[in-house]
Structures are given as C-alpha cells and as structure tokens.
Amino acid sequence: MISTDEQKVDELLSRGVHEVLVKEELRKKLLSGKKLRIKLGIDPTSPDLHIGRAVALLKLRDFQELGHQIVFITGDFTAVIGDTSDKDAERPMLAQETIEKNKQSYFEQVGKLINLDTAEFRYNSEWLGPLTYREIGEHADLFSVSDFISRENIKKRLDAGKRVSLREILYPLMQGYDSVAVEADVELGGTDQKFNLLAGRTLQEKYGQDPQHVVMNPLIEGLDGRKMSSSWGNTITLNAEPNDMYGKVMSMADAQVGTYFELCTRVPLNEIPEILAGHPKEAKMHLAREIVTLYHGAESAQKAEDNWQSTFSEGNVPTEIPEIQSEGSLKDTLVKNSIVSSNSEFGRLILGGAITRIDNKNEEIKIVSADAPAPTGAVFRIGKHRFIKIK
C-alpha cells in the first residue's frame, strides 16, 4: 500500500534535502499513489559504512515506509574505478580481493536501517561486467570531456597540476548506467554526486526510459570538522559498539548537534529546537541516545550512557568493555581487530599518548613501544572514550 499522506511526502522532500530534480514533478508522482523504484548505490571502498552514508540510507527508509520499492546497489564494479566526486587526488584502483572482503557485511549493515525483506539488493558487476567496448563508447559519446573537467574538484586538481586519469572519467558513465539497469525512478545521493546523478538521467533517455528524479542530501562533517570520510578516520561507523558510538557523539562540537539531529535521526523536526534550547551537554547526550538506539536499541543506549557518565563524570573505567582476540603485539591486535584502521594510525596514536593501559588501580600507563605485547586480560584505552580488553 502506497501512502500519499501530503505531510509525510513534503517532509520526505525537505528533511535533510539540499536539492530535488525535478521537485514538483516528483511530488505529484508521490501523491498519485504510483509505486516508484528508489535507487541508492554505495561502493565497498571500506569494510564499514559510516553515519555519513546513513543520511541517504535514512532517506531510503523514508521512501520504503511510504510503500515504494527501494533498490540498494553495492558497487562492487564501480569500486574498482573509484569515484573522485569528493576527492582532491586520484583514487587508486582497488584490488578485487579487497572489494570482496569489504562488501561481505554491507547488506547486514544496511539492514540496521531498512527492511531487508522488502528491499531489492543488487551488485552492479551484474550489468557493468558484460558491457562491450562499443557500448561503453556509445555511453561516452553522450558526454564531453569539458563537462567532466568543469566539475569543481576536477578543475582544482588540474589547476594545481595534479594528475586526472582517463579511468576517472568512466565513473559517471557507470553510475549512470546503474540507473538504466534497475530502471530507477528516483536516485539518492550527496551533493558531491550531482554530475553522476545527472548522468543517470542522460543515459536513461538514451535507452528510452523516463529520466530519474534526483534527491540530493547535504554532506555532514566528521568528528574533526572535515567531511566525514573513512580515509580520514573521522567517522562514526554503523558497526561501532554502543559505548564507542555514544562516546564519539559526545566528542563532537556543539555546533554539529543540530545538523546531526536533522540528518542522522528521525526525531520529529518540531522537537529539535526545544532540545537545542537546553544545556548543550544535555542536547548532545540526547543525540547520542537517539543514534545508539537507532543501531543497537534503547537498552544498549541506556547502558552506553551510564558507562559514559561513569567514565567521564566520575573518572571510572566502564563496567562493560568489549573484548578482542589477541594477535600477538598490541599493534597487530588493534589493527587486525579494526580498532585502529592501519599501522600508521596506530603509530600516530602511540606518539600522541592516546593509547594507554589501565592497571588494577584504574590508573593509566602510557604505551611507548609499537611492538608492546597485548597480554590476555589487559585493558587498554584508545583515544578519549574507547576501551578494549584482550581475550
């Protein structure tokens, strides 16, 4: 059953939305009761989806709750090429084994926000892999090189004398052809994706389909104030355990809280101003509860809040600490268990004194060696708010 509730449709087209193409036409379709196909694609360039991706995923859920058919595409083929829409340098080509490893839990992660039973899941290697050179040439003929290099980030790179590979030019064609393959009525994406989203409209017209509508969301800042990005490590991942997720929300700047309420939760919009009018700490705690509840449930959110208050208000170590398997050295243990993203990140944390061991008196012992052992039963603090125990 398709819902045509006018208030819900208008909020769908406004909450967390930067631009809609073409808005009035899409609104009419949504109010007509026609079942639309809503497309969102994400490339498995890292194993964990982060909350910046959840902005579009929540919008996908909004469409699903109105009764529309949502189509989630894991870009296992486009990930090889790499999208440069938000990058200031060329992305390396990913090895196929890396892509296969990264994509393993994508549907499970997406399932934290959408109903898996009614969603359509696809891999774009299904239709991009078989394309011939002739077909790719026909797609490319619809666009000019000047169209591509006039994009702001590409122009900046060229002006700075940085390399732009011909491979990068192919990406918008591939994302656009995804829309043809799944016959999308609407595609979701960030503002940095505009060129790629419009490419879908162009290619659909070539294949005799009605051009898709486009719903673009603004990009959110990560914990360091830059755009949230896995490559910068400033993310809150959807797989983060409750204490870590809660603590990361509490570490963000006060000025970010309102944006996160609007884009990353579904707290009613009319309630947000009242929440923000209170004490900044209380507003941030409210946000942290909402976000942890969204991914882990209310009980886990309450435990995470109790742990955070005990740790930061009373100076205690949390009573519930996640355990990870020892992999020998502390560095190998943290990297292989994805507690830190890489050896280089581990090194930066060590140099900054951000990795400490908690002794029996709850006192912190600074770690100075990158090859320090990870003994069974030891508790370590990573950064300001993350604790792990070696099992």
Describe the SSE topology:
Blueprint lengths: L5 H7 L6 E3 L1 H10 L4 E6 L8 H15 L3 E6 L3 H4 L14 H8 L2 H5 L9 E4 L1 H4 L4 H8 L4 H5 L2 H8 L6 H17 L3 E5 L3 H13 L6 E5 L24 H10 L5 H8 L7 H5 L3 H17 L1 H15 L10 E2 L5 H7 L6 H9 L3 E4 L5 E3 L12 E4 L3 E5 L1
Parallel strand pairs: 2-3, 2-5, 3-4, 5-6, 7-11
Antiparallel strand pairs: 1-6, 8-9, 8-10, 10-11
Helix pairs in contact: 11-12, 13-16, 13-17, 14-16, 16-17
What is the CA-based Rg, rounded?
23 Å
SSE arrangement, N to C: HEHEHEHHHEHHHHHEHEHHHHHEHHEEEE
CATH homologous superfamily annotation of the largest domain: HUPs
Question: How many beta-strand segments?
Answer: 11
- The coarse overall form would be globular
List segments where confidence is low: pLDDT < 50 over at least 5 consecutive residues.
none
How many structurally independent domains? 3
In helices, the fraction of residues equals: 40-55%
Strand order of the largest sheet: 1-6-5-2-3-4
Structural class call reads alpha/beta
The major β-sheet equals: 6 strands, mixed
Average pLDDT works out at 89
Query: In angstroms, what separates the terminal alpha carbons?
Result: 50 Å
Bin the strand percentage. 5-15%
- Give me the CATH architecture of the largest domain, please: 3-Layer(aba) Sandwich
Helix segment count? Answer: 19
CATH topology of the largest domain: Rossmann fold
- CATH class of the largest domain, anyone? Alpha Beta
